[in-house]
Write a structure and sequence with these properties.
three-stranded parallel beta sheet; alpha/beta; 340 residues; 12 strands; four-stranded antiparallel beta sheet; Rossmann fold
Length: 340
């Protein structure tokens, strides 16, 4: 991972063994973009003991700081690469991880080699380091790191708001014509200074009838905060705004969203049948005018069983015998209106 979009992702490199060595700070990254490959390839491997907890503490205290070039408000992602368990005499790993948690540092743990057998101390430490099971990776050798880093880079870009050149809500990208566009935005804080104008972006989404659900993760969304106000701006309605403590809560949220989408699209998740009432009625498909009333055929009403909308003065009445009879599904009543 020797290149990245500097507007989205900055990174620093710390090597550790019996001591810690800052190979590249965030400040150096910003100043020497053209020399990144040379810097990374020039790192000489330290070979000795494994003081992982001490190294993590070093990163928290010396690297993830504004003085060292870390950007305020940016997601802190710590990637720990180790080939075994910590050496006896190291700092307490559990306490060090608690410090990282308190500073909202997301952690990815990569175990290299054969020391991480199920139930081993090395594996348990790896599990402790990783923020979640999905952030724990095992590999046979360091040769596998390149493919891992490409995947991590993609994750970071998505997390920080990076986008590919391919637009999402277009037919070229596979979006179906006429389908509801639902945008789910998951964020852990306010937008970084220098981002595009959020209000204008939301206006574009409004113009394209994109329904938006905003999910705020973590403790940044206190009442009245800028982060909360942005979340409210993103969400199409108050009912589409969700706050949660951690990413572990997402599964239950997505089940609820799935139900919302099914209802919006007119589908019962349990039976795959439509749940439309008058939304697709097509009132006016046919018409009949008499001295006393005007009737419009509504062939799409109630799952295309159909019916009539009758107007007498200022009063309208929907007439549909099929609403109570399931065998009238797709009857298309109202296809033709005739006076008998």
């Amino acid at each position: 991972m020797t290149s990245s979009d500097p507007d989205i992702m900055h990174f620093a490199v710390v090597q550790y063994s019996h001591s810690q060595k800052l190979e590249m700070s965030f400040t150096m990254f910003q100043e020497r973009q053209a020399d990144l490959s040379k810097i990374i390839m020039g790192i000489e491997l330290m070979e000795s003991i494994t003081l992982t907890a001490t190294a993590i503490k070093f990163v928290i205290d010396k690297v993830f700081t504004e003085e060292a070039g870390a950007r305020e408000g940016a997601t802190r992602l710590l990637i720990v690469i180790t080939d075994g368990e910590t050496t006896p005499g190291d700092q307490d790993l559990r306490q060090t991880i608690a410090l990282a948690e308190n500073k909202d540092i997301v952690r990815c743990a990569i175990g290299v080699g054969g020391s991480f057998s199920p139930g081993s101390k090395a594996e348990k430490e790896l599990e402790m380091i990783a923020s979640s099971p999905s952030n724990l990776i095992k590999m046979k050798s360091y040769d596998d790191l390149q493919s891992i880093f490409e995947g991590l880079k993609s994750k970071i870009n998505n997390r920080e708001g990076g986008t590919s050149n391919r637009q999402g809500f277009t037919e070229e990208a596979g979006a179906r014509e006429g389908a509801t566009r639902l945008l789910i935005v998951i964020t852990d804080g306010e937008t970084t200074p220098g981002d595009q104008d959020l209000r204008q972006t939301i206006a574009l989404a409004e113009n394209k009838d994109i329904v938006r659900c905003a999910i705020g993760v973590g403790g940044s969304f206190s009442p009245g905060s800028k982060a909360e106000k942005e979340l409210e701006m993103i969400a199409s309605s108050p009912s589409n705004l969700i706050k949660m403590k951690s990413y572990d809560d997402l599964q239950s949220i997505f089940e609820g969203l799935k139900s919302k989408i099914n209802n919006r699209e007119g589908v019962h998740s349990s039976s795959n049948k439509s749940s439309f009432e008058l939304e697709m009625s097509q009132a006016g498909f046919s018409a009949l005018i008499t001295e006393d009333a005007i009737a419009f055929g509504a062939v799409g009403a109630f799952d295309w069983s159909g019916g009539l909308v009758e107007f007498r003065g200022n009063t309208s009445t929907f007439i549909n015998v099929s609403k109570a009879q399931s065998n009238m599904k797709n009857a298309y009543l109202g296809n033709v209106c005739r006076y008998v």
